[in-house]
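Assess the record.
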Amino acid sequence: METEDILNRMRKYCSKKECCKVDVYKKIMDIALKENIDIDPDEIIEKLCRERYIDEMRYAKAFAHDKSVLQGWGDMKIKYQLRQKGIDPDIIMSAVEVIDHDASKAKMKSLLEAYYNRLSGEEDEKFMKLLRFGIRRGFIFGQIKSVYDSIRSNKRD
């Protein structure tokens, strides 16, 4: 298999979904290992970037939007995951800015309320479980505490 064949496969792969350099690098290396060929993935990635098949800003914005809207992730988890993908910190900040924070807060509130309503046990224990759940989702303590306080005040009414 030639470099041009792998390049064409990567063009097709990147055309189907947004990809970052790390994802494409892993895919190229998987192909190279399976096919037992020696290839320079950086050369292919560079060409894909020039041809705009890979655009890390576009990828980061799509990732942030999808994870926020579809999976209910908070900013912290989104930032962490993008850092794990090797995305530049300035790009990460720009990507997080495009998130609809009002919709994100509403999603967070509904997720935390639904989770809280499934919990049993003492109130302190429920709060700690809610806190752990919220932090795993990428929300910060203040956001979680605010929702918890809202839930508690609604229960008293």
